[in-house]
Amino acid sequence: MYLPRHLAIIMDGNGRWARQRGLPRILGHQQGVEVVRGIVEECSKLGISWLTLYAFSFENWGRPEEEVEALMELLATYLRNEVPTMLKHGIRLNVIGDTGRLPGAVATMLDESVERTRSQTGMVLTLALSYGARDEITRAMRKLASAAARGEVEPEDISEQRIAAQLDTVGLPDPDFLIRTSGEMRISNFLLWQLAYTELYFTETLWPDFSPDQLRQALHEYNRRERRFGLTAEQRSKEGNQEEGGRH
Ligand code: IPE
Ligand code: IPE
Ligand code: MG
Question: Which residue ranges have biased composition labelled Basic and acidic residues (predicted)?
């Protein structure tokens, strides 16, 4: 089986999972964290090189204060519990998003966790926190405009590579495969630039019910996709259709 080199997941449906059980939303998020643990471990075992999880969007700041606070606490607990596991599995933690908006204690913990796992050589686990793709692109444009104003960049030198280098995802390959749970068929401001040629996969399963088995099912579907990148099928098969993925 060919694996996506970079798998990205929009983990959606925690609230509905809780509502279906007559529970407060936060219990859905708690169960969601349990599923994160299992899926991270499974991806690392399978040999996926980059896993990016959409954990908290820029727009999610607009949710009720109690929910935002509870999510921040869950994040802190997750980091406290999981860094030792990351170290055990060789996982390197990375973060994208406007993390300056996170509560100070969480931001510090995040910095420390990234630092502690910095020399790990296995899977790179990127958490998208306080992340919005338009915000990311806006911040990147500001950096480029400042460099231009200082005379460090000429407008004609602005290339796709230069733009990509200013994004939070610098150093990560574009996702090969995106999974969104909970049946919503939208991107919700996730990785707009980077998803240009990503294969998209939507499942009705709510995130707290998503299992390693369903992950494998999704990866099988990825194997059936024919990625053409704008070329003809004949050109692509000459180039070796799946060279961007790793053989498993
Ligand atoms: C995804 O679940 C988790 C976050 C956005 C933090 P939701 O909380 O969006 O769950 P639904 O979509 O309301 O069911
Ligand atoms: C996207 O889910 C963000 C995360 C999964 C973190 P949302 O629940 O916030 O997205 P919408 O509101 O349904 O588009
Ligand atoms: Mg949702």
Answer: 235-248
